[in-house]
Amino acid sequence: MRAVVLLLLGVNLVSASLHTVQYFYTATTGIENFPRFVDVGMLNGKQISMYDSISKRKIPKQKWMEENLDQEYWDSSTEILRGAEEHFLHQIQVAMSRFNQSAGVHTFQRMYGCEWDDETGATNGFDEYGYDGEDFVSVDVKEGRLISTVPQGISTVVKWNNERKNLDREKHYIKTVCIEWLQKYVEYGKSSLQKTVSPQVSLLQKNPSSPVTCHATGFYPRGIIISWMKNGQEHHEDVDLGDLLPNEDGTFQRTSTISVTPDEWKKNKFICVVEHQGKTISSILKEKKIRAKNETSVPIGIIGAVAAVILLVVIGVAGFMVYRKKKGFKPVEASDNSSNERITDTLISSGSGSSTSS
Length: 358
Hints:
Blueprint: H1 4-9, E1 18-29, E2 37-43, E3 46-52, E4 59-60, H2 63-68, H3 71-98, E5 106-117, E6 123-131, E7 134-140, E8 145-148, H4 154-161, H5 164-188, H6 190-193, E9 200-205, E10 212-219, E11 225-230, E12 233-235, E13 239-241, E14 245-246, E15 252-258, H7 262-267, E16 270-276, E17 279-284, E18 290-292, H8 307-314, H9 338-343
């Protein structure tokens, strides 16, 4: 399974016409002074909402979300997520049991949502679950079935695939309800989504003999290309392209590091080329342009509450996972993710709507 950070951001180069809404549930165990459950909502790579087990409230993270959605939406979503929290904390215990674990740091996560191309009308959906950073089960939306790549997920797959009613509702949510809400969000936040911010580019180096990093930060939208040129030709040897990361203000950052000796780059012309939204920024590798890494503050790249998920990556227990709604809840039409959260109960422990472990 891809790293959480990458899932949070989606693909690195995205067409301006392609829009994505994603929700991330994360339950944890064994981490002190940290929320045991977090839900993060993302639109086109920007955080739009959050919930955690400390505040126990779903709140907007964009002004346009607050302005366009009434209190009933936030109240109903909060109720749902409180149920999801309780259920997810149960499910992480079930998963630990299946993997013969009784203690330690573990994560149980879900990532679901949909995509819509406003030019072609094409849509796509996804619903993936993971345990401790690895695939556990996922929904094949096209085929309408659950699949798993690990033995511990087989019993869940067998049970869930026999529950056609639940799978049909899941498919309906992803292919219809999710798309409808995605289109609403795009309309609500169009002024914010259409803004363009160019990157700031710096050349960084720890010491004279260490690799040189081309660091682009503060850009939006997220699509960016960073490449190296040597004497006018593309250069790919000993180049390491870093992950796309979010900044706290909703912009993004990315690095490309080249391993080259001072003697080599002084005898040749190396250029870092950054392309973003039709604009090209070129930085020639010269000694006077290189800044020491300890003299600059390079942000870690955290989108507000998404820090919860990214922290899990840092401590080496990243993944994604699922929640399935507690039995007894009824759909609330006011919320975008309510119908999906309501129908997807007990995926791991039962698949039949109960909350008892199997």
